[in-house]
Amino acid sequence: MLTKSLKWIYVGIGLLLAIVPLIWMVAGSFRTEADLYGHTASLLPHEWTLHGYRGVWQQLPFLRLLFNSVLFAGVTTALTVLFDSMCAYALARLRFRGRTVAFWLVLVTLMVPFQVTLIPVFMELFHFDWLNTYQGLILPRATSAFGIFLFRQFFMSIPKELDEAARIDGAGHLRIYWRVILPLAKPAIATVALLNFTNLWNDLIWPLVVSTDNTMQTLPAGLALFAGQHVTDHAVLFAGAIISLLPIAVVFFLAQRYFVAGISTSGLK
């Protein structure tokens, strides 16, 4: 009984630590600056106002920032799922010399921080004249070692008898990959897509590095520059942050069933 009570206490503490900052941010988006600084210990506003949400549309090119974020996160996620799954199919289902070495090289790249390769990639984009372009923003992030690893582990759990049956029917590798493996890999696809979309949607450093033009910036970059260029209007920042959270919440609730299945089954082999 004591153990069960302690578990609920730990869950309650964790829930409070997670939800109180979110409540404070939501409430802060409805507060004035005077209320925010005058009643810092108060969780809820003393004076409710929609100034923050009006300011999002009046003080920021919000629709442009939102469009750039959707395009960057959406297209990059789609390319990541495609390229990572194709690479993982080769590593999991094909027999060729150096396959194990190639897989270990992929795993090694997981240990290299993204910041280490930031300057070399930036220089390549500069020479290609791809700075402040969508292709420069999207293509360098169009694959991930973690996605390859997760897809490969999931594909290893699919019986190879399915491949043999498809070959008897005359299917090649491309058809087996597209018509047999991918339909069975929906949990892995949802997991990789959700994790990548969330990471890309919240990415701040990469869009700031490759996009100096205001028309090419994403929501996190736009909100960060807004806070740095002007006297900070916290209500506007909070409102922008809340609106930027909505797509992630929608994607998660739509994919959560497959996400849980993908996480639980990708490590079977």
From TrEMBL:
SUPFAM superfamilies: MetI-like (SSF161098). The keyword Nucleotide-binding applies. CDD domains: TM_PBP2. GO terms for biological process: transmembrane transport. The keyword Transport applies. InterPro entries: MetI-like (IPR000515), MetI-like_sf (IPR035906). This is Sugar ABC transporter ATP-binding protein. It comes from Paractinoplanes toevensis.
